[in-house]
């Protein structure tokens, strides 16, 4: 007998990246996994005889639980003063000279206690979870020393301990240069590779290692050193690539068979082709594109042509995407980048799971996968990308258990 069965629902399975709609469907769960899925008419008996609990979805849609596969959720403070100055015409360099920019967040985060970081990050996480989120990736990168980087990753792990959300952590020590290493990028990369990353790995705090390969971050050679250090520690890698310039970051990500290459606004065709051959997922971040008034669009046409799966994420961070809405990212992906609503929804389910190395257990509604899904008060799945500011989420089931 199954633990529960969910009937009178329409199912968007997202298999193969398509809606895969099953109207008037049913979904059965056992031991935290999907035990059966299909049309209600094909059930092998009456629901009450098949499961201990029967849930009537009353015509709602069910999708896989949403996944935000690129965030900087754990940090202290905000950058609202920088936001105001930029609106008045200040450049990023001028903000840095005013004591703002990433260095401001690093200073605030170094001073914050773990409990302060837990409190602030929990509030951000709740907003995302209220929109049907069941899995999130959280990066470090606002510590830039051993004590604070490990503190950030411990906080991220704590956020997932309740079981209400799956948290995957990424070590992003190669984010920006800390103030004490300005003009000494190679020395900082030495510190990352020989001290901070080994300490993170020894404490088992990271599921992956990330780096920024861009004109605003680290060179290909410097990023490559970080990826080599991660490989030596047998940690999967990801890469912030080509956001502000064509730094051949996409090709570098492919060379190391990275789980994902993220941003990609300036990536070239050879890099995209290499990503396709390596199985590296493209993660697009429309919130950052919007907030920074970026003009260069990511190469969506090339990604489609080469068959690179496209994931969408919030990039939640204080400097370039202070967003608390994964649903808004669906709308932005469509309106700014030209994705279809179907592509956008696949981007926060199936493809986002692949970007985190979780494709075998999450991201689609299929027998054997985790019982993580969201229920929606909508008439069609495209509504999730259509409405701005609306939240039609009617509830979430995580590991087979309902979450309000």
Structure notes:
By secondary structure, the protein is an alpha/beta fold. It is built from 16 helices and 16 strands. The protein has helices at 47-50, 80-87, 92-97, 101-111, 114-129, 146-159, 185-202, 220-232, 249-255, 269-278, 286-291, 300-306, 326-337, 341-347, 350-355, 383-386, and strands at 2-12, 21-30, 33-39, 51-56, 61-64, 66-68, 133-139, 166-174, 208-213, 239-241, 260-263, 281-284, 310-312, 373-376, 393-398, 401-403. The strands form two sheets. Strands 1, 2, 3, 4, 5, 14, 15 and 16 form an eight-stranded mixed beta sheet that branches. It folds into two domains: 2-64 and 374-403, Urease, subunit C, domain 1; 66-355, TIM Barrel, CATH 3.20.20. A hairpin with a 2-residue loop joins strand 15 (393-398) and strand 16 (401-403).
Summarize the structure.
The protein is α/β, with parallel strands linked by helices and 404 residues long. It contains 16 helices and 16 strands.
CATH topology of the largest domain: TIM Barrel
Q: Report the structural category.
A: alpha/beta
Number of domains: 2
Q: Hey, roughly how much beta strand do the residues contain?
A: 15-25%
Q: Which geometry do the CA atoms define?
A: globular
CATH class of the largest domain: Alpha Beta
Please tally the β strands and state the result: 16
Q: Roughly how many Å is the radius of gyration?
A: 21 Å
Average pLDDT figure: 96
Distance between the termini: 25 Å
Q: What's the main sheet like?
A: 8 strands, mixed
At CATH level 2, the architecture of the largest domain is: Alpha-Beta Barrel
Uncertain parts: none
**Total of helices:** 16
User: Would you identify the CATH H-level superfamily of the largest domain?
Assistant: Metal-dependent hydrolases
């Amino acid at each position: 007998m199954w633990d529960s069965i969910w009937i009178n629902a329409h199912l968007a399975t997202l298999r193969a990246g398509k809606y895969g709609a099953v109207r008037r469907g049913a979904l059965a769960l056992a031991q935290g996994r999907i035990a059966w899925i299909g049309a209600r008419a094909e059930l092998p008996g009456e629901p009450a005889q098949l499961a201990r609990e029967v849930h009537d979805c009353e015509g709602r849609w069910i999708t896989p639980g949403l996944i935000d596969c690129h965030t900087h959720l754990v940090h202290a403070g905000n950058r609202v003063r920088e936001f105001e100055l930029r609106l008045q015409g200040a450049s990023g360099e001028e903000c840095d000279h005013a004591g703002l920019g990433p260095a401001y967040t690093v200073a605030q985060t170094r001073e914050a206690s773990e409990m302060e970081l837990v409190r602030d990050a929990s509030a951000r996480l709740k907003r995302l979870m209220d929109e049907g989120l069941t899995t999130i990736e959280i990066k470090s990168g606002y510590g830039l020393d051993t004590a604070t980087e490990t503190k950030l990753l411990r906080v991220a792990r704590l956020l997932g301990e309740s079981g209400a959300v799956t948290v995957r952590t990424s070590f992003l020590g190669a984010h920006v240069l800390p103030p004490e290493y300005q003009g000494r990028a190679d020395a900082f990369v030495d510190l990352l590779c020989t001290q901070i990353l080994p300490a993170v790995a020894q404490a088992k705090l990271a599921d992956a290692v990330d780096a920024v390969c861009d004109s605003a971050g680290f060179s290909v050679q410097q990023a490559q050193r970080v990826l080599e250090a991660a490989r030596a520690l047998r940690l999967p890698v990801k890469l912030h690539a080509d956001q502000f310039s064509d730094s051949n970051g996409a090709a570098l990500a492919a060379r190391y068979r990275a789980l994902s290459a993220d941003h990609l606004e300036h990536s070239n065709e050879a890099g995209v082709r290499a990503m396709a051959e390596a199985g590296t997922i493209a993660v697009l971040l429309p919130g950052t594109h919007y907030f920074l008034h970026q003009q260069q669009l990511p190469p969506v046409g090339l990604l489609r042509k080469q068959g690179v799966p496209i994931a969408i994420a919030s990039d939640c961070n204080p400097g370039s995407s202070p967003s608390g809405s994964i649903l808004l990212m669906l709308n932005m992906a469509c309106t700014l980048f030209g994705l279809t609503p179907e592509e956008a929804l696949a981007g926060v389910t199936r493809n986002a799971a692949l970007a985190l190395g979780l494709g075998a257990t999450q991201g689609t509604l299929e027998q054997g996968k985790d019982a993580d899904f969201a229920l929606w008060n909508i008439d069609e799945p495209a509504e999730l990308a259509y409405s701005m500011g609306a939240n039609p989420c009617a509830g979430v089931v995580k590991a087979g258990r309902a979450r309000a």
